Amino acid sequence: MELTFLGTGSGVPSKQRNVSSLALQMHQERDEIWLFDCGEATQHQILQTTIKPRKITKIFITHIHGDHIFGLPGLLSSRSFQDGNSALEIYGPKGVQEFVESALTLSETRLKYPIHYHELYEGVIFEDEQIRVKSMQLVHGVPSYGFVIEESDQIGPLLPDRLKSFGIKPGPIYEQIKANEVVTLNDGTTINRDDVTGPMIPGRKIAILGDTLPYDRIVDFIRDSNVLVHEATFIDEDAHLASDYNHSTSTQAVKIADEAQVKHVMLNHISSRYLRHDLENELNTLKQIHPSVNYVYDFDSFHIQKEG
User: Fold this and answer.
1) How many CB atoms lie within 10 A of CB 155?
2) How far, in Å, CA of 289 to CA of 282, rounded?
3) 122 C-beta neighbours (distance < 10 Å), count
């Protein structure tokens, strides 16, 4: 799993930052890319990466402010011209479907693939054998949501010494053992998978939040996440602006992450009023609260390691 930040600014694009969009790439896990928000010019940002729009299977929209959705019509149209024929799912609050369909209809854009819309609610919004996505409403003036992506725990690695003790040599039987709780060998020997594999590998947990004021419920929602992506529109000295505009400061975000025992904190949705040196100065203070925190910039990537 790898996060690629396509747009890390707030409100309007700047020379340093485009508006909000984030890709979760899962090529090895399921050969898919999931997109979180799609601000204006997201497809232009994608051109600077190795991301293929046809690989995008799901788009999650945190809320309907323009800096999070204005790039949708263009991206959806271009996907049709780039061999994107498979169905695409859009998860978002009320209004996203109307916005997209109105833009496509008025521009007489005809897609080569169907779109399935899912209006957001609190709880589990997607689940299969490999992954689960939960949603929670935040506090931002308009309905704004956060998402937690939880990977299922995985079977531990095969233990060569244990396999050898049963006289099992490398071959297709390894795959059978990994895929089944109990396997019977040709000589009648029964092999329990738990006897020849290491401890379960914990699934990864990723929290991606939309715009929000600090909110007590966030702590339990994101608890023990491997990585948290949290807005930090304002630095601490501008806390009054954060309150006025229903946003969080970087300090507020990091304190929530620390209380939730999040391992890594990625701060995005940064106001264009701040230059790099402003953020570097702020970061020195933030690292005293949580040592693994960073401001992210457009095209930054973060690989999410397995713990086991």
Assistant:
1) 16
2) 12
3) 12
Neighbours of 301 (CB within 10 A): 12
Which residue shows structure tokens 């990994």? 178
Q: Which candidate, 17, 44, 61, places its Cα nearest to that of 233?
A: 17
Q: Please list the helix, strand and coil fractions of the chain in percent, rounded to the nearest 5, in that order.
A: 30, 30, 40
- SS3 state at 244: helix
Contact 250, 203 (CB under 8 A): no
Query: Is the backbone of residue 269 left (phi > 0), alpha (psi -120 to 50) or beta?
Result: left
Rounded distance, CA 283 to CA 286, Å? 5
State the catalytic residues. 67
Tokens describing residue 32: 């898919």
Alpha carbon distances (Å) from 285 to 116, 251, 288: 44, 9, 5
d(CA 58, CA 209): 16
User: Structure pTM?
Assistant: 0.91
Q: Are strands 145-151 and 131-137 parallel, antiparallel or unpaired?
A: antiparallel
pLDDT in tens, the chain (308 residues): 999 999 999 999 999 999 999 999 998 889 999 999 999 999 999 999 999 999 999 999 999 999 999 999 999 999 998 888 999 999 999 999 999 999 999 999 999 999 999 999 999 999 999 999 999 999 999 999 999 999 999 888 888 888 888 888 888 888 888 888 888 887 888 888 888 888 888 999 999 999 999 999 999 999 999 999 999 999 999 999 999 999 999 999 999 999 999 999 999 999 999 999 999 999 999 999 999 999 999 999 999 988 75
Q: What does each C-alpha distance from 178 to 116, 164, 197, 221 come to in angstroms?
A: 35, 15, 8, 32
